[in-house]
Amino acid sequence: MTETLVQGADSGAIAAGERIVDHSAWPVLKSAVEEIRPWQSKDGSIDFEAEGAPSPAAVEAVVERMIGAVEELSPLTPHDADYHRALVADLRKWVRAGATVPDFLDSLLAFQPASQRADGLQHLVVFPMYTQNGNPDRNFEAVALRMVWPEWLAELEATRYDNPLFCGITFEDFTAGYDTHSAVLFPETIAVREAPERFTWGGIFCDREAARFRKVTEAAVDILGLELPEDIAAMVQDQERCEKAFVLWDLVHDRTHSHGDLPFDPFMIKQRQPFWMYGLEELRCDLTAFKEAVKLEAEGNAHGRDVQYAVLFDRMFRFPVSGDRNRNYDGLGGQLLFAYLHKNDVLRWTDNRLTIDWERAPEVTNRLCTEIEELYRAGIDRPKLVHWFKAYDFVSAYLAPHPGSRWAKGPDALDLTLPPRKLVDDVLSDEFPLSMFYEALAKKLKSVIASAKGITATNAERVAA
Fold first, then answer.
1. Which residue(s) pair with 184 in the sheet?
2. Which stretch of DSSP H or E encloses residue 56?
3. Whole-angstrom distance, CA of residue 124 vs CA of residue 384
4. Are residues 251 and 393 in the same domain?
5. Can you tell me the distance from the alpha carbon of 260 to that of 258, in angstroms, rounded to the nearest whole number?
6. In angstroms, rounded to a whole number, what is the distance separating the alpha carbons of residues 73 and 231?
7. Cα-flanking dihedrals φ and ψ of residue 325, to 5°?
8. For a tag site, which of 74, 151, 154, 451 has the least CB within 10 Å?
C-alpha cells in the first residue's frame, strides 16, 4: 500500500502507512478479543471455577494471540510504540496474576493521544473497559481509530478554545463493546488499580455522533412536518459537514465544564447531586457551544451555523427520548430547551406540524444560556441545598414536576436534618416526566434511535438494514 503523510500541528509530516484494518493481524486481534470477552466477569476478571469457564492455559493462549497481533500492528502506529509495549506487559501481568481484576494503569499512562494531535493519525487501542452508553462491564475492547484535527480546528483551539486534552476521533473498526450507542473513549472507563492524579486526554467519536444525528433528525423532521431552511437541510444530508459541526461542538462543550462562574466542582461525578443539576450543567455546556457558534457565524466561519442546528436538533429530537427514564439528565436538558423555546414562541406545534422561527431561534436560545449562567453565578453565594432548590425552581418553571414529587412540595416536605446528599434519595426516578408531545414523539422515534446502535459513517446503510 502506498504510504501517505499526515501533517501534524507541531510535529511536521507523520507517516500514516497502511491502514490498521487492512492488515491481516487486525482480524486476528478482533477474534481473540471477542473470544475472551464472554469469559470475563463484570469487573473484567475470569472466574475459573464457574461452569463452562476456560482453563488458565486457554486464556493464556488467547492473550498471546492478542499480543502477537498487537506486536504485528504496532509498527503502523510508531507514535504508540511506548503504549503498545506497556500494553503487552499489562496483558502478560494479568495472565500471570490469574486473570483477576485487570490493572492497566501502566499502559493507560503510556497512551498519550492528545500529545500529538494530527489530522488522520491512526491509533490502535486495546484496554479492559466499559463503554459509556454501551457495555457496562469492563471487558477487553480493541478499537482502530483516527484523529480528527484539521487545520481550522487546530487554529480555533490554539487561539480561542484552548483544550489541550480534547481528541476528536473517528472509528475505523471496533469490537462488540462499541457495537452500541457509545460515542466516547474516556480514560476513566479503563480498569486500573487507582485513578491517575489527572487524566490527560478524552476522545469523542464525531463520525458516530454525526451519523446518528443525521438518521434521527431526518426521521424527526419527517414525523413533525418541519420545513428546514435550504442550507440546514443540505447539512443534515452531508456526513462530512455534520462531523465538522460535531467536533467543533464537542471541543467547546468539553472545555466549558471548567470555564465560567462555577458554584461547584464542574466534574460533578465526584459529588452526589440531584440529576437536574447534571442536566443543567450539560445543557450549559451545549448552549455555550451554541452561543460561540452564533459568534462564529457572524464572523463568517463556515461551521458556525451548522453547530447551532446540530445542538438544537440533537438536543430537542434525540436527547429527550433516548435512554430510560431513570434520572435521565441529558433527556431533561433536551426537554428544558424545547419547553423554553416553546414558551417564548420560537417553536409552535400547531395542526400536527412543528414550525420554528429561524430568525429568533439564536437570540432566544442564547437567552436561556444567559439565565443558566446567572443561576450559576448566584449559586456561588448560596448553600448547596438552597442552590439545588433554586435550580429546581428554574427547571420547574418550564417543565411540570411529577405530581407525587416531594421536592415539588418545597423544603417543608423534606427532612432537612439530613445532609444534602441524603435528600437525593427523595428525588423521583422520573422527577420531570415527558410531556404529551414527547410521549408521542418517543413512540415514533423509538425504533429509529434503536437502529442507530453501532452506527458510523461507513456502516450507516448496514445499520439501517
1. 204
2. helix 56-73
3. 44
4. yes
5. 7
6. 42
7. -100, 25
8. 151
Residues ≥6 apart with Cβ < 8 Å to 154:
9, 117
* pLDDT tens digits, 296-353: 999 999 999 999 999 999 999 999 999 999 999 999 999 999 999 999 999 999 999 9
> Cell numbers at residue 318, please?
434525540
Q: Are 136 and 164 within one domain?
A: yes
- Dig out the grid coordinates for 322 from the structure: 433516548
Question: Could you tell me if 155 and 10 lie in one domain?
Answer: yes
Residue 445 has φ and ψ, to the nearest 5°, of: -100, -10
Chain centre distance of CA 33: 24
Cell numbers 506497556: residue: 86
Same domain for 346 and 363, yes or no, is yes
Considering the domain architecture, whether residues 172 and 242 belong to the same structural domain is answered as no
For residues 128 and 24, state if they share a domain: yes
- Provide the domain limits for residue 254: 208-464
| Domains in the chain, number | 2
In sequence order, the 6+-apart residues with CB closer than 8 A to the CB of 143 are: 124, 125, 126, 171, 173, 174, 175, 178, 185
Nearest to 111 by CA among 71, 74, 131, 82: 82
Q: Where among 183, 200, 217 does a domain terminate?
A: 200
Cβ–Cβ under 8 Å, residues 79 and 14 = yes
Residue 417 identity (one-letter amino acid): T
Determine the residue type at 248.
L
CA R_g for the chain: 23
pLDDT digits (tens, 9 = 90+) for 54-83: 999 999 999 999 999 999 999 999 999 999
Buried b (16+ CB within 10 A) or exposed e, 325-336: eebbbbbbbbbb
SS3 99: coil
How do 139-148 and 12-15 pair as beta strands?
unpaired
Q: Do 122 and 264 sit in the same domain of this protein?
A: no
Q: Same domain for 120 and 263?
A: no
Domain boundary (200, 231, 257) is at 200
